[in-house]
Each structure stands twice: as structure tokens, then as C-alpha cells.
Write a structure and sequence with these properties.
Two copies of one chain form a homodimer. By secondary structure, chain A is mainly alpha-helical. In chain A, 63% of the residues lie in helices and 5% in strands. Chain A is built from 27 helices and eight strands. A six-stranded mixed beta sheet of chain A has the order 4-3-5-6-7-8. A two-stranded antiparallel ribbon of chain A has the order 1-2. In chain A, α8 (138-161) packs parallel to α20 and α10 (186-212) packs antiparallel against α12. The longest helix of chain A has 28 residues, at 24-51. At the A-B interface, α14, α19, α20, α21 and α22 of A face α14, α19, α20, α21 and α22 of B.
Chain lengths: 603, 603
């Protein structure tokens, strides 16, 4: 036990591993990184809080404890956790039906969402249930993120123009925008559209410009990422200098100074039940986003990321967000890349970033009083439009119609019915289409290529077949969605060809035979026997054969299990010749002649 | 078009095919069969109507039109459709929450259930959606039928003893039975238990006795199947002769004489919405039962059954049942076997059976007045206990733990929560367990068997490997449930072995690569590239390769797609030797040395 405990501790507390190697040089490096990331995170945190329908400071609260806890529990050296666009949108969608924005109940529900999501992630990590995230297929998550990006961008047009719109989903938003366009506030619109133009310019043209001015690749990248700060400072100064607030420009206003108080999340079982499903979806979407970023960055330096421990770290981060009055967080792509490119060597950089944000919360919030909401909305639009990948639709269409269907259904339902419906429909459709695609597998009638031991599809190659032997190759595992298909196929083939006296099923691509397929094979065997036909298998894989031996099937099989298709045909042909001599056309005679033989086995 | 129409007509009206060959000899034969089946069906129809909570005559009504319509549309020569035990139980479960037994609303809901079920089956047949039935895996359907059999038998103990019980599900029934056992009516119990004993004796001992007395195999079988009629006649005579009704023996009483009036089913959208899910489940369970029987009997005579046309025929049969005031029907095992063994040559035998039942409804119903319910309950118990197959649990446990879990969950939930919950949980669990089992596929590190071109699992065989080449063989299709697993596996393997400079994925068992897996392969390729490692594929199947060509992956792949694993290793080794000479330990040099090459292709 004494040796086990440190082992377990090291597994669940990765900080013990990297902390032991921590040096003064690493410290200096991580501090520099933290300063850069802090500057980038402050406007982002405020903006995502507003997107989630929460007071701006909640975004800052959600950016401290999670970073520290991730530093303790996380296995990625570069991941930065905090509020992200998609999780903020999902939070707004989950909480809006339960309480009005601006009320303590709304904030309470967001905190409860972070709590439950954190507990779920922790449980999934401890129970090693990370595979649940796999049910979110790539086309579904990609379509979902694209739709979320479109939806978020649409929702931020109104604050950019200084108008008020009604509506939950994309279509309602667009209709309401069209109706209220006349109420545009010219001052707000100038700030909003100006910020938008500036931010797009920063994103597209600043880096090439800096590179031409002799700035290095990485510093240019980082300066581009912190560009939004310039827009924040300039527009805040403009609102203050030109006294635009009385002109109707909405501003962030008083952001409470000081650190969040630690509180327990509301313990209201009725509330918890209502947000169980949204919490699960936020957890899984957040985890998928986070682990993808973590794996990508880890690979660049050949570092390891433990997917199950990542669940624990994200769970702890969300619980940390909750007790400090924040909302659901996850590992974000943009912030993690800045962290990585600025040279973060350990998760300590994240912890120092948390200190930076804490200092900003203590001392800088009065400076944010005149920050216009329009600028924050513009930063959100620019950030989320990079999430929108409509080209993926085209690429997926070219590659797979089924995946395209799942992706486009996810996008359409998310935009028309909201994020939860979009995800649920997408996942269900992806699973259905997969089962459907395997329910009618590719089956080839095969024949021998003359002069070789190879057997190939009769429709693609010039092959030799025997009218009394039907050889079928199934290119799919045999399991419940296709079990009956195989039954019907054999029934059909045999009914259409009265000459057939042997059926061979060639199984080189059969990775598994489940109980349904076993039942079907038994049915095929019995029915063929009733019709005087012998049933054989060939090229059965080792693990599949091991399992078949645990059933009665091999004892009941009228034919044999042959090592290869060539062996099967070679051993049947002499039998055929003999039985034809003995009892031509006597089907019963043949059935009796080919008595059940002990099966051979392929290793 | 003129040539198409008869073709279509022949497809949708199989009667045109067999009707054209109909002869006087076939007629005589089919008439004999019909007489035998009619005698068997009358008590069964009455019993199943009572099981469904409906008046006894409804069972007769549901046994006429469906047989005629199946004769027109069905493709099986031997299938007999009508009320069956499981569908009757499901009807009771679906309709009981909506109306009280004995009310016109209860009958109306049962008729609506048959209508919707019929329309669904028709639609599935016309749209060729028969594969939907495949989602009901064998262990789930087998567990469901076993649980239904137990539940039905439990529900019939009370009428056998003449007591009244409360409760919907199995546990409630058993508890209620225990409490009310003291109220047993001695006369009813004598009739019920006597019938039960007689029927078990008929089932187990009559056939051997008849055979010893010199009766032929088939007549003995058929006499055994019509044995219940003797119990019906004897107990009806006893109730009449000994005037047992005043002693508390419940009897069938007045069965309306005459044919059912044709009516339209109730057009109540609210009612239809409530029974949509039960109707779908009854349709699918009924279809699975029916098609299994049809395929089994067809195979015995090498006849064809068209699964999609069978859906149409069952749909028409259910609509026929509905308009003649009946309840959901399907192809039953017992009646079809009797039909087959009595020698039915065409579906006309079924139509003549319908005439037989119509004659009975017109003239024999007064004779059924004194028929005790206890006798019908006894016939149900004996019939359904043959559905209970607890041995399947043991066989399935031996063969597959996942299938065992799905089967036992279906049984437990059906008994504890009812038929619909049982089916839904079973199907969902079966799908989940399948996806789970493929989410962590078998992956082997492979090495070369010295002196051969074969590569095998390093843990099972003595093989040669190169420390700079990692060869992985995945024994599963690559798709969303396992895409991330492969990513993490490669990430882990490469992080653990700093010497690796080439990774080869051997794909002989990969039947498909979906968009999620493609994305993962692209991620693996990019991440390996970032780490200075080249990524190769080998033994990719033709259809999988065709699809990969429609993506960007092959252009981006740092390595090649090799025809065989041997080719892959053979072509990499010289490269390795060369690059090691040129720039030992210089990872960047290797990455540059192995430039992206045009992929080769396996045909």
C-alpha cells in the first residue's frame, strides 16, 4: 500500500510530476506567458459572460479558479481553461427557460450548471467513461460548432448596432433583426462596426504587416491575438471622452471590484433535474473541444495527454468555477494556442494567468466602466466566425453522404430548434445511419481466378465457379443490424438457383459474430439442411472462431469451417463428383452423404 | 408502361402468380387444411381476445379478414395470420391506460391500434424499410418473448383459479395472486387445473401414444395441435350439465351471432398520437415473429419469401382486422406450422380457413355460451409456456456477455415495467453495447515472422520488429465510436517510444472509414508530422481506398499507402538506413527526407 499511494497520487495529481522538475528558468518563462495570456483573456472573459446572459464580472470569476485547478489536475502542458463561446451559448440556452436574465435565479442556475457538469466530468473520469464522448461523431460536432458560431454571430449583431431583438433561435433572431434595423443607434453602430472592421483587419492583415516590419513569427502571432485589447482601450476612451453614454451607447458599467466570494452552489433538486441533460451535453461538447486541443498541442512536442485524467481536471475546473460564482468552462482553442505559442512550459503558466486576472479584478475593473457592449459583441463575432466551417459540408458531401446527412441535420436543427435539439438529433441520426449502412453490407459472389488459389468477386473478375457451389464473401462484421439480411440473401440465392448443393460463407472481413448473427447462421444452416444443401464457412478469424466454439453451431453445422476459400472448394468438389455418381439428382442422398464433420479451425 | 403495370401488379399481388396455377387438386387439398386449422383456431382466437382484454368474439373477427387479405398480398405459402399471444399482451398494455376494459372506448382504441399498426407496416413495405426490424436484435426479441410468456402465464393463473387480481406488471400480479389465493373458487379451479393437466398431457404424451397406436407422424402432430378442442367441449358440457355457473364459474356467455359489421376506425388524432409508439413496437415485434416463421417454412420447400412484400401483406391484414372490428394480428408460429404440416399448398388455405371461422361465427357461437373462461386461460398458459426459453440466457451468457446483458435487461424491465419499457431499454442497450464494443477495438502491434512475408501480433508470435517502425493492425472498421481511441493510442505509443520514426497502420479488417475516422487519421498524420514521424497505411481495401481518394488525406499523408505490410516495411527500411547515415538523430532531417509521396493503391 505504501508504494501504491504515491503511484495513485501521481496519477491523479500530475502537478506532482511536473512540479518536481520546476526550475527558476521555467518560472521566468511561465510568468511572461501568463502576462500575455492575461491581456488576451480579460476582454474575452467579459464578452463570453455577456453572451451567456450573465454580468460581465462572472466571466472574470470563471477564469481564475479553473486555471489553478487545471494546473493541479491537468495533463496537458499548454491547455488554458475558461469560458468559451460554444459553452457560453449552451449555458444561455439551458438557463434562459428557467429564469430571467439579470436575476439571482439566472446566475444561480448557471452556477448549478457548472456544478453538475463538473460532477459529471469527474465521475466520467473516475469511472473511465471518456469513450462516451466518442458518440459525438466528428460531423455532428463540426456541424454543431458551425451552427453555434452562426447563431452566436447572429445574436451579437443587435448589440453591435445598439438595437434590441427578441428570439431564441437563429430564424427568430434574423426576423427580429430585420424588423428593428430602423432603431439602430448611430453612435453604438459606429463603435460596433468600427471595432468589427478593426478586428477583422487585425486578424487578416496585422500579422503580415508586422512580419514585413521585421517582427518575428511568434511575436507577430501573439500581437495579433491580443489585438482586441486595442479596440477595447480605444472605444472605452471614446465613450468616456465624447460622453457617448447619454447618447444611448450601452456600456459595461459598474463591475464589482474584488475577488469572488466562495459559495456553495444552490442545492435545489428540482433545478438540478431540469438541467441534467443540458449539463451532460455541455460536459461532452466541452470535453471533446478540450481534448482535441490538448492532443493537438501535445503532439507538437511529443507530450502525453491522459484522456481520463483530463476529464477529472475539467471536472475540478468546473466545480472551481461554480464555487467562485462562475459558469461552465472548458479548454479553449484560441487561448490554448496563445499559451502554447507564447511558450508555456508547464500548467503553472495557467495558474499565474489566474493571478493576473485576479489582480485585474482587484484593480482594473473601474477602468472597464465605459467599455461599450458593442465592442465586446464585435470581439465575439470575429472570434466565432472562425468556428464556422461551411467548407466542411462540401468536403463531407464528397466523402460520405451519411456523414453529410448527420452534419447538415445537426446544423439545421441547431439553428431552427436550438443547441440541445441539434446535438440530440445529430447523435441519434449518426448512430442510425451507421447501423443502417452496416445493415446491408457489401456481399460478393466469389469465384476462383483460374490457376491460382485466389477467389474474387464474379462481377469484377474473370473467375471459375461451380453451379453446385455458391460462395459468398461478406465484407462486414455479422451482427444484429445485418443478421436477417444475410438470412434473406441466402434464402433468395438458393431459391433462385435450384442446382446449388453447397453454400460457403467466406469471412475474412468478419471481425465479430454476435448472438443475433449466430442465431441467423444457425437458421441458415437448418434451412439449408431442410433443402438438402450443405453449409460451410471459410477464413474465419481466430477470435471469432474462439467464440463460435462456445456455441452449439459448430456441432450442428452440416459442412465444415475451412482454413481458406480454396481449401473449401477443393474439399467439396470431390464430394460432389462422388455423390453425383452415387445418386444423381437425389437431394436427400446428398444431404445424407455430407454428414456433419468436426470443424477445423483457423489460427 | 403497359409492360410495367402487370410486372408491378404481380409484385404487389402475389395471388396473381399462384392463382394462375391453381388447380382442382390444390383446391381439395387446401379445403382439407382449412378444416383442420379452423378447428384449432376457434378456441385460440377466443382466448387471445380475452388476453387482450376484449370480448371473445373480437378474436373471431380478427381471424377472418386478415387471412383473406394475406392470401391476396402475402408471399409465404404457409403463413397463417391472426391474433397471437405476444401481440395480444402488447395490445392490452397499450390500451389499458387509455380506457377501462369492457367499454366501447377500449375496443375503439384496440381497433385504432390495429389501424395504425397496419398503416405503419404498409408504409414500411412500400418504402422498403424492413431493415428497421433489424434493430430488434435477437437477444432482445428472445428476452422480450420469454418475459411476455412469463407475464401472460402469470396473468392467466387468476382465471384458472377463479380469483380476481390487481396489477399491471409481473411483480404486482404475483403479489396480488398470493394475497387472493384464499378466494379460489373450487369449481373453477377444478375445471382450470383439470384443463391445464389435460393440455400438458396432450402436448407431452398424446403424440407418442398416437404413434404407438399406429397413427402417422403428421396426423399425430395435427391431432395433438387440435387437442385443446376436446378440453373446450368437455368443460363446456360440464358447466352446462352440472349447472356450474351459479357456483361462480365464469363463462364466455353470449357471443353475438353473425359476421362483424365493417366500420371505420375512430378518427381521433389525440388517441392516435398516444398509441403511436405502442403501434410501432407491435408492428415491429409482429413483423419479426411473422417473417421468422415465413422464412423457416419457406426454406423447407425452397420457396421464396419477399420481406418487403410481407410488410405490405401484414399491413393489409391489420387494416382488414381493424375495419372488421378486430385487433392487431400477425403471422403466428403454432397456426402456421399446423397449416404447413396439414399440407397447405397455397395461401388459399388461409382464405378457406377464414370461411370456416365465418361459418362458426354464424352458427356455432351459441354452443360457446357455457364455455368456462378457466379453460381458455389454461389453453393460453400451455401455449405461452412454450415461448419461455430461459435456456437462451445460459447459451447467450456463454457466447456473448454483451448480448446476455441486453437479453436479461429486456426480461427484467419487461417484467418490472411493462412491454414497451422492456423493448425500448433492450434496443437502446443493444445498440449502446455494440457501439461500446467497437469503441475499443482489438489493436495488435505486429512484427514480421522471420523468413516470411507474414506479419503477426508481437505478443502471440516470435517476430522481428524495427525500433524505428511501429506497425499497428486494427481489427475493426474505423468510425466515430473508435476514431478518437486510435488517435489516443498512436499518441500514447509514440510518446512512449522516442525512437519511432515511422508508424504503419495495417488495415486488412477495416471495412469502412467514416468522416470522423478520416478526421482522426488526418489529425494523426499532422501530429506525427509535427513530431518528425512519417505515417503510412497498408492493406487498405478497394472500396475504402476509393473513398479516401475523394478526400485530401492521400495528398497530405506524409508516407504512402502500401499494397501489403511487407511492402511497407521493405520500402521504409532502406530509407531509414539512408537517413540515419545522412543525419543521425536529426529528427527534422528525417522528416524532410521522407517527403510526401504520391500514394499507391490497392485494387
Amino acid at each position: 500500500m505504501t508504494r501504491l499511494v504515491p503511484e495513485l497520487l501521481r496519477r491523479y495529481l500530475p502537478i506532482l510530476t511536473w512540479g518536481a522538475e520546476y526550475s527558476r528558468r521555467t518560472l521566468a518563462n511561465d510568468l511572461t506567458v501568463a502576462a500575455i495570456v492575461t491581456v488576451m483573456l480579460i476582454p474575452q472573459s467579459l464578452a463570453y459572460a455577456l453572451l451567456a446572459g450573465l454580468p460581465a464580472q462572472v466571466g472574470l470569476y470563471a477564469s481564475m479558479a479553473p486555471l489553478v485547478l487545471y494546473a493541479v489536475f491537468g495533463t496537458s502542458r499548454s491547455l488554458a481553461v475558461g469560458p468559451v463561446a460554444v459553452a457560453s451559448l449552451m449555458t444561455a440556452a439551458a438557463v434562459s427557460p428557467l429564469a430571467a436574465q439579470g436575476t439571482p435565479e439566472y446566475l444561480g442556475a448557471a452556477v448549478a450548471l457548472a456544478t453538475i457538469s463538473g460532477l459529471m466530468l469527474l465521475a466520467m473520469g473516475l469511472l473511465r467513461l471518456g469513450f462516451l464522448a466518442n458518440f459525438l461523431s466528428h460531423p455532428v460536432i463540426s456541424g454543431f460548432i458551425t451552427a453555434s458560431g452562426i447563431q452566436i454571430a447572429a445574436s451579437q449583431v443587435a448589440p453591435v448596432l445598439g438595437i434590441h431583438v427578441e428570439g431564441e433561435n437563429f430564424l427568430e433572431l434574423i426576423v427580429s433583426l430585420g424588423r428593428n434595423l430602423g432603431h439602430t443607434n448611430p453612435f453604438t453602430a459606429t463603435i460596433g462596426l468600427g471595432s468589427l472592421a478593426f478586428l477583422f483587419w487585425v486578424r487578416q492583415s496585422l500579422k503580415p504587416l508586422l512580419r514585413r516590419l521585421g517582427v518575428g513569427e511568434r511575436p507577430a502571432d501573439i500581437l495579433t491575438k491580443v489585438g482586441p485589447v486595442v479596440a477595447i482601450v480605444a472605444t472605452t476612451a471614446a465613450v468616456w471622452g465624447f460622453a457617448l453614454e447619454p447618447q444611448g451607447v450601452r456600456i459595461v458599467g459598474t463591475v464589482p471590484q474584488g475577488l469572488p466570494r466562495l459559495t456553495l452552489p444552490p442545492l435545489d433538486p428540482a433545478l438540478w433535474m431540469k438541467i441534467l441533460v443540458p449539463a451532460l451535453l455541455i460536459s461532452i461538447v466541452g470535453y471533446v473541444e478540450s481534448i482535441s486541443v490538448a492532443l493537438t498541442l501535445a503532439a507538437k512536442r511529443r507530450q502525453r495527454v491522459d484522456p481520463d485524467q483530463e476529464l477529472i481536471a475539467l471536472g475540478a475546473s468546473n466545480i472551481g468555477a461554480a464555487v467562485s460564482g462562475g459558469f461552465p468552462v472548458t479548454g479553449g482553442f484560441a487561448r490554448s494556442v496563445v499559451n502554447f505559442e507564447a511558450g508555456a512550459e508547464t500548467p503553472a503558466a495557467g495558474a499565474f494567468t489566474a493571478v493576473g486576472i485576479a489582480l485585474a479584478t482587484l484593480f482594473l475593473t473601474p477602468l472597464l466602466f465605459f467599455l461599450p457592449n458593442a465592442t465586446l459583441a464585435a470581439t465575439i463575432i470575429v472570434a466565432v466566425l472562425s468556428l464556422v466551417d461551411l467548407g466542411a459540408l462540401k468536403r463531407t458531401w464528397a466523402y460520405s453522404r451519411a456523414d453529410f446527412a448527420a452534419m447538415s441535420a445537426t446544423i439545421l436543427v441547431t439553428l431552427a430548434q436550438g443547441v440541445e435539439a441539434g446535438l440530440v438529433v445529430g447523435v441519434a441520426l449518426a448512430i442510425f445511419l451507421h447501423l443502417y449502412s452496416t445493415s446491408k453490407p457489401h456481399v460478393a459472389v466469389v469465384g476462383q481466378i483460374p490457376g491460382t488459389t485466389h477467389f474474387r468477386n464474379v462481377t469484377r473478375h474473370t473467375v471459375v465457379t461451380d453451379p453446385e457451389i455458391l460462395s459468398l464473401r461478406v465484407d462486414e462484421s455479422l451482427y444484429f443490424p445485418n443478421a436477417r439480411f444475410i438470412e434473406e440473401l441466402v434464402n433468395e440465392a438458393v431459391a433462385a438457383n435450384p442446382a446449388i448443393r453447397h453454400v460457403i460463407l467466406e469471412c475474412p472481413a468478419v471481425n465479430t459474430i454476435d448472438a443475433s448473427a449466430l442465431e441467423s447462421l444457425e437458421a441458415i444452416n437448418h434451412r439449408l439442411k431442410d433443402g438438402g444443401i450443405t453449409f460451410h464457412l471459410s477464413e474465419v478469424k481466430g477470435p471469432v472462431m474462439d467464440r463460435l466454439k462456445r456455441s452449439q453451431f459448430l456441432q450442428e453445422l452440416t459442412g465444415k469451417v475451412h482454413l481458406s476459400q480454396f481449401d473449401a472448394v477443393s474439399s467439396i468438389k470431390p464430394e460432389l463428383a462422388e455423390s453425383t455418381r452415387a445418386a444423381p439428382r437425389a437431394v436427400a442422398g446428398i444431404a445424407a452423404g455430407v454428414a456433419p464433420s468436426p470443424p477445423s479451425q483457423q489460427t
